[in-house]
Design goal:
This protein is an all-alpha fold. The protein has three helices and no strands.
Length: 106
Amino acid sequence: MEGMELICFQIIAASGGAKSAFIAAIDAAKKGDFEEAARQMEAGEEFMNQGHEPHAQLIQKEAAGESNPISLLLIHAEDQMMGAEQFKVLAEETIGVYKVLADLQK
């Protein structure tokens, strides 16, 4: 596998790793382990960066006049990346709620 397929699968894999880390962060916060939640959020962010790098390369190529083929695989990769970005926001908000609840129980 090479070229566009490889780039798409890099984006998909990184997005999946990010979503998994964000879910783990919410689970940790639910248990009151906010340090682990922060570690998982950082891990999720690292995965997101891994997905953004090949995506940015595609954008730079297109901006330079080199056409990228549009495929269902590329659309799926971008959809997964956007979903992971949205899940990050949801995780941040959910962790915030768990922190408030933890403070109220003190």
